[in-house]
Amino acid sequence: MLRQFTIADYGLLRKLDKQTIYLNNQFLLTRGTGASSRGALFSPLSAFTGLYTFISDDRRSRPPIFCQALFPAGSLLAFCVLLAPSTAVDSPELGEVLESATRELAARGAHGLIAEIEEVHPAFKALRQSGFSIYARQRVWKVTQAPRSGDGKSGWRPALDRDQFAIHLLRKSLVPGQVQQIEIERSAALDGYVLRREAEILAYAEVVRGPHGTWVQPFVHLDAEPFDGALAELIAGLRPRSSRPVYLCLRSYQDWLQAPLENLGAQAGPRQVVMAKRTSLPLLVEEPRRVAVPSRNAEPTTPIHAPQPQAHYETERISNDQTPNYR
């Protein structure tokens, strides 16, 4: 069973900082580790902040298990931010905690719970046993120094509302169908850059900015190759530095961008798997009732008479008599 986080739990959560497993790269790299504990303080306002913090209410769990998830406005997916302590991966109660958290998020409209972890991490096996399944693989690249951006004529510009449909088609052509079933596009306003060539969008870079870094999720068509110059211009425009790097997340279907990143001196992070746990809620269906109809006799309608043949009579032949006494 779970209960909502209270201010009395804050001290314990802070003590578990070094025993926390972080399961969302974007949140961690753009906001920092302190954002999760600070966000937990505003648990009564979770509907507005989108950050939900749960704690196990089971005396068998000592210390209790913390689970935090981010459910942004306009998204149909919730993202598991952290689990604490790290010893929870060996706890038999972890499955119940994750299942209860999934039900709580489903009641708020989430279609799935997403977690990112290295395949060799002990938490990977625990997540698999709790109903999470792999649907993608990724690698996060870090850039701390702005590369040379060339002449700046590659064509990047901020994404506009009128680009929504073209970006949707680009994602559909790049993202595998299995991933599209999980990774539903957000309905929120676009925040990123598009690369156009001859009135066609060849690349879209989704950007999330935070005080600790900038997150970039690129979607690049193969027709944009060679992409080294355009990638350098994009990163240079985001102004990376050691205190606020630029992180590029490459999913397995965009692996060909690794070579341009290596040429720019980007640092590769560990390979990770992206896992999803589908949410489910019982669907209440109202049973149709049969309405009793009072018995009544059928109302007569206009009768249809069909002539009955009479075999013992012959058809009478009538002739026109011209005499005046004919009746």
Summarize the structure.
The chain is of the alpha+beta class and 327 residues long. The chain has ten helices and 13 strands.
Structure description:
About 25% of the residues lie in helices and about 25% in strands. With about 325 residues, it is of the alpha+beta class. The longest helix is centred in the N-terminal third of the chain and has 14 residues, at about 95-105. The chain is globular, with a radius of gyration of 34 Å.
| Tally of contiguous helical segments | 10
Mean pLDDT: 84
What's the gyration radius in Å? 34 Å
Largest sheet: 13 strands, mixed
Briefly note the structural class of the backbone: alpha+beta
Count of strand segments:
13
> What is the rounded distance between the termini?
105 Å
Strand content range:
25-35%
User: Which segments are poorly predicted (pLDDT under 50) over 5 or more consecutive residues?
Assistant: 281-285, 313-321
**What is the succession of H and E elements?**
EHEHHHEEEHEHEEHHEEEHEHE
Question: What share of residues is helical?
Answer: 10-25%
Shape: globular
Features:
327 residues; alpha+beta; 13-stranded mixed sheet; 13 strands
